[in-house]
Amino acid sequence: MNRRDAVKTVAMGASAAFVPLATTVNQETLTANNLKGNINHSVCSWCYPDLSLEELCRLAKDIGLVGIDLIGPEGWPTLKKHGLISTMCNGAELSLTEGFNHKKYHAQLIKNYTKQIELVAKAGYTNLICFSGNRNGMDDETGLQNCVEGLQKLLPLAEEKGVVLQMELFNSKVDHPDYMCDNTQWGIELCKRLNSPNFKLLYDIYHMQIEEGDIIRTIKENHQYFGHYHTAGVPGRHEIEENQELFYPAIMKAIVATGYKGYVAQEFIPTRKDPTLSLRKAVALCDV
After folding, report:
1. Is 152 helix (H, G, I), strand (E, B) or coil?
2. CB under 8 Å to 287, separation ≥6 — which residues?
3. The domain containing residue 88 runs over which residues?
């Protein structure tokens, strides 16, 4: 499942196997705002299509989240009203498949991102998402060169304004066939060539578990290139609980051990009738 199809297919969650609350997270933890403060928690808005942004903001504040991911300028006033931030801004991209690896998109992307960097900075935010785009027959080296050429035109402004462009890693095995930035090696090489503190990778744990695995070692050895993290259960992109293969408390401990001070956003699609319980538990599991 991907963001484009979320609204159409989120109803499938109702037929997915219901997962009871784990005994390792008690009801008091789920209802009390008693987070440890080692992780700055966030949530991706698109995973909760039945909640308005107002409702999601109220839930986020009740749980103790610091913000919400993938919110553009139209939603920023609502976030600010609730004392939340846009932990990962969007709105400049063309699509997930049309990105910086193809020069034919550069003119429009540079126009969009130039405007959006200014808006993000004016709002007092930091992170702005971007995408490589699909290969469409292009080899990886050409894609790297094209991404460097396009992004280099934006980085001086990003550096001046204190905005960090973050390219998301997707898997191309299941969710995003043909996506170019589908492995950490390619993404890290792009970071090295750009050589700017204002370009990072959005390390999506769900996607990289599917594509290459070895999550904790990868984080330990390459954390300097990762500016943001997303979660979800593998397989299925549902709750990060006992019926999936990743143990998120250990992953979060590895992230904390690197000295990371950014944000971890929950990006799973809930299967419970009450999706707020799933989010509460996910945050509790990740609050190490």
Report:
1. helix
2. 35, 36, 38, 39, 41, 252
3. 22-286
Nearest in space to 87 (alpha carbons), one of 131, 43, 33: 43
Taking residue 261's Cβ as centre, other Cβ atoms within 10 Å add up to 9
Cα angle 221, 229, 141 (rounded to 5 degrees) comes to 65
Do residues 94 and 106 touch, judged by C-beta distance below 8 A? Answer: no
Mean pLDDT of the chain: 91
Cα-to-chain-centroid distance, residue 24: 26
pTM of the model: 0.90
Q: How far apart are CA 100 and CA 91, in angstroms?
A: 15
Model pLDDT for residues 13-23, shown as the tens digit of each residue? 333 333 344 43
Let me know: does 215 contact 253? Beta carbons within 8 Å: no
Beta bridge partners of residue 129, listed in sequence order? 166
Predicted pLDDT of residue 230: 98
The answer to whether residue 204 scores a pLDDT higher than 60 is: yes
pLDDT average, residue stretch 144-151: 98
* pLDDT value for 18: 36
Instruction: Give the helix/strand (H/E) hosting 118.
Output: helix 106-123
- Could you tell me the CATH number of the domain that includes residue 81? 3.20.20.150
Q: What is residue 86's predicted lDDT score, i.e. its pLDDT?
A: 98
Cα first-last separation, the chain: 28
Q: Is 279 domain-assigned?
A: yes
Number of domains in the chain: 1
A 10 A CB-CB count for 242 gives 12
